[in-house]
Amino acid sequence: MFLPESMSRIVIVGANSYIDETTEVLYDLESIHLIDQTVDADEGFTLGTPRPYSPKAAERLLKVRAMEKDLGINKHTKTQPISESEIRSQITSDGVENVESEVRVVLDKRNDLNQRITELNAKKKSLELLSRLPIDLDMYSGYKSIVSIVGSVEKDPTQALAGLGEVFYSPDKKNGNLVAVFVKNEDKSKAQSILSENGFSEISVPEGTGPVNEALMSVNNQLDTYNKELEVIQKETEVLFERYKHFLRASDEELTMDAEKGTLPIRIATTKYTFVIDAWVPTPKVESVKSTIESKVIGTYVEIEENRGRREAEADNVEDRFKTVPTKMTHGRITKHFEYPTKMMSVPKYQEVDPTTLIAIFLPIFFGLMVGDVGYAIPFIILGAYGLKFAKNPDWRAIATVLFFGGIWAAIFGFFFFGEALGMHFVGEPEGVEYTWQSLLGLENLDKAFSWLADGHGVHKIGAAYVGFLLKLSVYIGLVHLTIGYLLAIYNKSIQYGFKHGFMEKGGAFLTFAGLVIVCYAVATNLVTSSPLPNDLYLGFIGVGAVIMIIGLIINAKEEGVMKVVIELPDTVGNILSYTRLVAIGMSKAGMALAFNYIAIGMIAGGIGGIPGIIVGFVAFTFFQLMIWTLAIMSAGLHALRLQLVEFMIRFYEGDGIEFTPLKIKRNKLLSNKNVKEA
Amino acid sequence: MAEGIGLGLMAVGAGLAVGLAGLGTGMAQKDIGAAAVGAITEDPKMMGKALMFMVLPETVVIFGLVIAILALFVLPGQL
Predict the structure, then answer these.
(1) pLDDT confidence bin for A117, thresholds 50/70/90
(2) Sign (positive/negative) of CA torsion A207, A211, A216, A217?
(3) Confidence of residue A424 (pLDDT cuts 50, 70, 90)
(4) How far apart are CA A579 and CA A546, in angstroms?
(5) From chain B, which residues contact A within 8 Å (Cβ)?
(6) Which residues of chain B have pLDDT under 50?
(7) Do A87 and A247 contact (CB within 8 A), yes or no?
(8) What angle do CA A248, A59, A91 make, to 5 degrees?
(9) Average pLDDT estimate for A156-170
(10) N- or C-end of chain A: fewer Cβ atoms within 10 A?
């Protein structure tokens, strides 16, 4: 749970003639993390070549993907399951090629039509412009000594062009001014330069004869015909989509696997007759993996090379490619969702504690403490439960998990610590700008229902002592959290290099922290609270704290240098105080709610503006509460996460591991034989 | 009378603590935010990390907020 699963390294040796069978078995086992062969690693070995079926599979895959794209089939398209044997027989009997020839005909026709329609639309656009000039289409060209220049202009060029030739001008503010100029061949460049001064851009005149309007009508007719044809083709593609979507999705999956399996040999070492595969396997499974491979494939032999421990020294005498061990995080159904924040930093190293479980414990608590309001907690719980029941995407499931458990904690803290719902306390008389549920609902005896709770409990207006208590509480939570972090740092280094080394490297920081906490406790008690410690006790605390701190500082200075120590001291204080955000954010939100409630409820209760005023008041109330609720997700969620990633994990976490990615068939549900039988 | 002035000064102090700390946080977040938007445009997967960096300087304003809370709630009790 806390350490990644232990790993063993195996070597699989076998005959080249059985490589396909071996590949199948390796993929079925789903616990083989392949170690890539490096070319010059062993003399006499070369990297393998892809299997003979691989290029064909890749080619078919390309065709299938192209068809899927053209028909608009993607991973969200709903398809029925097809059994693996069925799809395989369809593929081997040239199913892909047959479908392609049928689909291509329709798709080519569709592309052709689309292209023609685009061309016609362009022609139509220029004809529509030209229809504003009283010139037939065949008049624009076919002269020996004069040329025509047609286009749009920003300013009227008629004056400037006077005397050069014939000018037709049609001003239109909305669609642009149009000009057609007929000049002698030798005057063309002169006319063009005058036109360009007036913001000219040329329009190409479509070929044709007769009046423009007639040409326009024939273009429109053609467009209608093509559009009708396109509709027919669209229907045909829809039919093709329905007919082949199952086949295409399934063969895409099958061929992807084929292509991947076919290129497996280029990751392993081969000789003329044999192959050698290096791989990592989880230690608990290594014996069963060995016996499965040896019994299922004739002529293979599996050697267990080593069971790798967590000591760094164990990696000293092995080849470079065996130095890094893949990390397999082992988590239950719920903690698994908290791998996301861990991975956001980095995948844990094989030789260190995986903090996911601790994040799963602390993250919802911190979130709940920062929200701390029953009214906001209930929607969180409902939303989280809904997400957990219906969401499929792992990211959404992770968020839903945090919302659900965070919501439960928020309800607990909201009830017992803050006594608030929607930013209003449960009991008490309205005072100043504050409203309470007791006075709003007119329940005079509500305070008796809470009389069993300790005095000063948050259901009443929060007093000075209670705020002090909450701030202290948040610091204490931080101390626990940080202590776990410091101890984990020592533990990590201990399993990597032994306890002595671990303590010398990370123990200094912990002792400094512990000493500092004791000193700060004494100082803070005397400065801030009204009941200072007795003098002897005060000096005792300071003395003991200082001694521990100095021992820590000396160890640290020896290990990391004096400079680091100087920087680290204020940093430690900052980290501890950073946890006060647990309460501070909750209170800032409560403050906001207080102000908003005062405005909204004041509008409703005061009855300003009659019935419409009351309605506006209710709308404002809903809007304000929703705003605070959304802010609660953002601030509480991000800050809860930040406390894990920054304050906590920086103490001990190294990361930079590689994830355990076993050879495995990535199926959607639509393919496997087993699923078909179930369905 | 003196107590009233003391309370008033505490309120002013609380306001200054939050306000000035907020300014500091804002100055830090301005740069981080610009860089974060750039990073997210390059690779939307950076969103999570970028958000984390965004809230880093908020510690400053939270220290300010804690001082303000102390000034408003805890200190008046000792006046």
Answers:
(1) very high
(2) negative
(3) confident
(4) 23
(5) 48-49, 51-52, 54-56, 58-59, 62-63, 65-66, 69-70, 73-74, 76-78
(6) none
(7) yes
(8) 45
(9) 82
(10) C
Nearest residue in A to B46, CA atom: A344
Structural tokens at position A366: 């911190």
Closest approach of A659 to chain B, Cα-based (Å): 18
Of the candidates B69, B77, B78, the beta carbon closest to that of A584 is on B69
Report how far residue A607's alpha carbon sits from residue A624's, in angstroms, rounded to the nearest whole number.
19
Give me the percent of chain B exceeding a pLDDT of 90.
Answer: 38
Q: Is A7 helix (H, G, I), strand (E, B) or coil?
A: strand
The phi, psi pair for A451, rounded to 5°, reads -65, -20
In the three-class reduction of DSSP (H, G, I as helix; E, B as strand; rest coil), residue A89 is classed as helix
Contact A624, A422 (CB under 8 A): no
Of A427 and A89, the one with more pLDDT:
A89
Does the CB of A580 have a partner CB in chain B at under 8 Å?
Answer: yes
pLDDT tens digits, residue range A614-646? 888 889 889 999 999 998 888 898 899 889 988
pLDDT, average across residues A186-201: 85
Phi, psi of A459 (to 5 degrees): -65, -25
Q: Which two tokens stand for residue A37?
A: 């062969």
With a cut of 60, say whether residue A459 has pLDDT above it. no
Q: Would an 8 Å CB–CB cutoff place A532 in contact with chain B? A: no
| pLDDT value for A432 | 66
- What are A434's strand-pairing partners? A431
| Cα–Cα dist A131/A44, whole Å | 80
- Residue A573 tokens read as 């204080």
Q: B60: nearest CA in chain A?
A: A578
Report how far residue B48's alpha carbon sits from residue A419's, in angstroms, rounded to the nearest whole number. 33
Q: Are A523 and A539 in contact (CB under 8 A)?
A: no
Contact A528/B at CB under 8 A: yes
Rounded to whole angstroms, the Cα distance separating A396 from A210 reads 65
Alpha-carbon separation of residue A126 from A130, A204, A609 (angstroms): 6, 8, 60
Best of B51, B70, B73 to disrupt the A interface (most A CBs within 10 Å) is: B73
Sign of the dihedral defined by the CA atoms of residues A459, A371, A575, A357, in that order: positive
Of the candidates A442, A582, A657, the one whose C-alpha atom is nearest the C-alpha of residue A7 is: A657
Give the nearest chain A residue to B52 (CA atoms). A642
Per CB-CB distance under 8 Å, the chain B contacts of A636 are none
Whether residue A463 is predicted with pLDDT greater than 70 in this model: the reply is: no
Q: Are A409 and A586 in contact (CB under 8 A)?
A: no
**Residue written as token pair 């993929």:** A27
Q: Which residues contact B55 (CB under 8 A, 6 or more apart)?
A: A638, A639, A642
Residue A441 pLDDT exceeds 80: no
Mean residue pLDDT across chain A:
85
Nearest to A237 by CA among A352, A106, A339: A106
B50: nearest CA partner in chain A: A344
